[in-house]
Structures are given as structure tokens and as C-alpha cells.
Amino acid sequence: MTVDGRVARGERTRTAVLDAAVVLATEAGLHGLSLAQLADTLGVSKSGLFAHWRSKEALQLATVDRAVEQWQERIVGPALRAPRGVRRIRALHEARIDFYAARVLPGGCFFANTEFEYNARPGPVRDRLAEAFDRWTAFLERLVGEAVAAGELRDDVDVRQLAYEIDALGIAAAMRSRLLDPDTAYRHARRGVLHRLRASCTDPTLLPEGQP
Amino acid sequence: MTVDGRVARGERTRTAVLDAAVVLATEAGLHGLSLAQLADTLGVSKSGLFAHWRSKEALQLATVDRAVEQWQERIVGPALRAPRGVRRIRALHEARIDFYAARVLPGGCFFANTEFEYNARPGPVRDRLAEAFDRWTAFLERLVGEAVAAGELRDDVDVRQLAYEIDALGIAAAMRSRLLDPDTAYRHARRGVLHRLRASCTDPTLLPEGQP
DNA sequence: AATCAAAAAGACCGACCGGTCGTATTTATT
DNA sequence: AATAAATACGACCGGTCGGTCTTTTTGATT
Fold first, then answer.
1. Which of A56, A61, A111, A189 is buried most, with the most CB atoms less than 10 Å from its CB?
2. For residue A188, how many other CB atoms are within 10 A of its CB?
């Protein structure tokens, strides 16, 4: 906020720490994240981290928030350049699985990995992840709803169901792109969503593509 | 193998350890599994574990194998009682998501959690998980292929693609049944697969159901 | 140049980690 | 009853964990 040099310096450090934390947590897990390793990676001292966050849990929560910001910038932002409606849904899904296929983060998807990691760890971190997931789901549903409202999808489409299935194919792609062949995972996730959208699309020319 | 008392006692211990390891690893992760906690849970000594497996990694590999056995008994076995074809595919998928909805393991699905955990951990354990996943995928594809051969699914169905989408909905259900509302996750995963199967089904009476 | 708070550093703590080792107990065979 | 192997145990090792403490450095303000 302030341009005060003292505060600005601390803010710069915090952002650098969180960016590194997202990368390390994607690999080792957010629970498995080591503060010593995080500090070493940045060339700072571990005790300095506790000057910015009062505990590891506080840093984990901040890391989730930072990962949400990155997701907005890298996945949602580009997709919003596509025209509203079916084309935007498709752009969003493809931006997402492109992200995995490009192996932007060596460890895969921060959210997919972390959400599975916290399946059996109730607490503030899991709650924060669940909130982020809720917002993401609501966003997907809004996009589908817009496409229905624009007449591009049949108006008997179950918006929540369609959004669920689109997201499910993205989740599966996040897993398989690391565990198995990434190209196959990418192609299957892409074709699955295209097929699903076409089944409810009122205008076939909205989704021009070679294979079904 | 032998009914020799010495071997039988050790075998009993090994099985008990692995069963407990599957439960603990589903919660804490297979990498995050603590041998001390595992030994305490069973009331045995930690050092005793190293008499049966030469390292933690060896125990982890054995745990994966044991989880595969349990999957066969609890998911695949019941599904194989359904008649071959579309009905068996549906039975398999429903046995799978029923398993999550029933919250049989408090931590969710051993394989889903673990496969995401090992996204960024190359090595023997990840290889073993990938092998198990390959066998599972091949099994799903075989079931779909059987349904096509029996004329229950249209013969222009892409077998691998359909198997991929069925599995993707199961993976997503495994995540959401813990992170979010389990009933919603169950219903969406079920409806998604039914909808997908009906789209390629030659005989609608094979999938009698209320909602689309 | 002096000041003073933000920021960073480094030594240190108890707890837990995977793993080793020597020893005691069980069990089938002789 | 004696033996030998399989099994189980408790003490202990070096290393890493999250977290605390005190001290030093940095940099804008006066």
C-alpha cells in the first residue's frame, strides 16, 4: 500500500516467499512443505519467515491465496479474452489443460495436489482450499449459465452438472499428465469436453473441430 | 504358502501391518507415512518392521500391492457379479463411488490421494502406482470393449475415450466427497456416467433410470 | 550525522524422523 | 530336553522438523 521503503521491502520479500512456496508446495505438498528448504531456496534465513507469518499454518494460508492469484492471472485471465459463451468455456478448459501439458510447474497442479493432500486433514487450510474450490465451481457455473442465456446451449441443460463434468475432466488431466502420458491425458480431456459441449450446443459452428 | 507355524505368524503380522498402512497412508500420504506411528497403532515395535521389509520404500511398495488387493475385493469383485456389458460398467462405477460415499476410509481414496502425492516424486513407488493405474485403465477399457462387442454400445464408440471419461468422473468424486459435499459429488458422478453411457447405448432399456 | 523501527540473521530448543544394533522371546524340529 | 531359526523388542544414532530467542543490518526520517 504505502510506498514507504521499509514496508515495500518487506512486501517484496513476502511475495517472493509465497511464489517459491507455491512451487515447493506443488512438489512436496503444502503440509509437507519444509520452511528450512523454503528459506534456503530464497537465500534467506528460516527465522525471518516468522517475522512475516506467525506460524507455518499462516504461511500455508497465504500460499493458497497467492496460488489463487496466479490461477486468475494464468488461466482465467487469458480465457476471458475469448468471446462470452461456449467459446469462453472452451477457452477456459483448454487454458487449464494447456497449463498442465506445458508442465508449467514440475509437480503438476497446486490445487489438485493440495486438495487431495488435505482430504484427511480438517482445519483452516482445508477450509481455505474448499472456499477457493467453491469460487472456482461457481465461476464455471456462471460461464455455463451465460452460454445458456445467450442461446448457445440448450436451455434444458443442467448447469451444475455440466460444470461438474468439465471440471472433472480437468482434475483427471491434472493427475494423468504427471503419472502417465501427458499428451494422451491432454487429448482425452479436451475431446471429452468438446463432445460434452456439442451434445448441448444449439449452433454446431460454435465449436468447429476436426474430430468429434 | 507353507502352513509352517513360523512362516504363518510372520505372514499374519505382515498382513496386519499392511492393512494398517493402507489406512494411515490414505490419511497422511504414503510418503508422509510414519513408521513409528504405524508400529504404535499395531502395538508392535518399530524396529520389528525392518525385519519384514528392508526399508520404508519396500514397505511402501508392499502397501500399494495390498491396496490393489483390497480394491479387487471391494470394488471389482462385487461389480463382476453384474451381467457382462453396459450393466457391468455401471455396476463397477457405482461400486466405486458408493465406496467413497460410504466413507469406508476416513481419508478418502488411497489411490487418488497417493497418485497426486507422487506427481512430483519419481521413483519406484510412483512406478508401481502407475502400473496399478495402467492395469485399472486396461480393465475399464476391456469392459467397454465387451459392451461394444455385445452390441450394447454403438460400434463407433471410442473405447479408450469412454473409459477415460468414466474414470475421470470417479477421480473427481474421490476428491469432492471429502473436500465438499459427498452426496452432491456422488450424484453428479453417477449422473455423468449414466448420461455418457446412454448417449452411446443401442438399447435404452439397458439403463432404466429416473433422471437423464 | 543521528535516530529508530523494520527486517534479516544465526544459534539453539525439544520432538520426531528413518534406520541400526544387540538381545530376548517364541516356535518347530531334533 | 536341546537346538536353531524366525520373530519381536528397546535403546540409540544422525538428521530434520517447526519454532524461539537474541543480535545485527538496513534504510527512511529528522
1. A189
2. 24
CB within 7 A of strand C (chain A, 27-56): 43-48, 51-52
Gap between the Cα atoms of A116 and B32, Å rounded: 13
| DSSP symbols for B59-113 | HHHHHHHHHHHHHIIIIIHHHTTSPTTHHHHHHHHHHHHHHHHTTSSTT--HHHH
Instruction: Provide the CA B164 distance to its chain's centre, in angstroms.
Output: 15
Query: What ipTM, to 2 d.p.?
Result: 0.91
pLDDT at A101: 85
Handedness of CA A112, A117, A123, A125 (dihedral sign): negative
Distance CA B13, CA B7 (A): 10
Spell out the CATH class of A57-205: mainly alpha
Distance in Å from C21's C1' to B64's CA comes to 29
Select from A118, A142, A144 the least CA-distant residue to A131.
A118
* Element containing residue A25 per DSSP (H, E): helix A5-28
Instruction: Delimit the domains of chain B by residue range.
Output: 64-205
Residue of B8, A168, A25 lying closest to A176 (CA atoms): A168
User: Are residues B192 and A168, on separate chains, in Cβ contact within 8 Å?
Assistant: yes
Task: State how far the Cα of A204 lies from the Cα of A206, in Å rounded to an integer.
Answer: 5
pLDDT classification of A6: cutoffs 50, 70, 90: low
In the Cβ-directed half-sphere of A69, how many Cα atoms lie within 13 Å? 10
Q: What is the pLDDT of residues B135-165, one digit of tens each?
A: 999 999 999 999 999 999 999 999 999 999 9
User: CA A86 to CA A147: how far, in whole Å?
Assistant: 6
Residue B158 backbone dihedrals phi, psi, to 5 degrees = -80, 105
Class of domain B64-205: mainly alpha
Nearest 5°: the CA angle B87, B92, B94 is 95
Plot region of B82 (φ>0 → left; ψ -120 to 50 → alpha; else → beta): beta
Positions on chain D within 7 A of a protein C-beta? 5-11, 16-22, 27-29
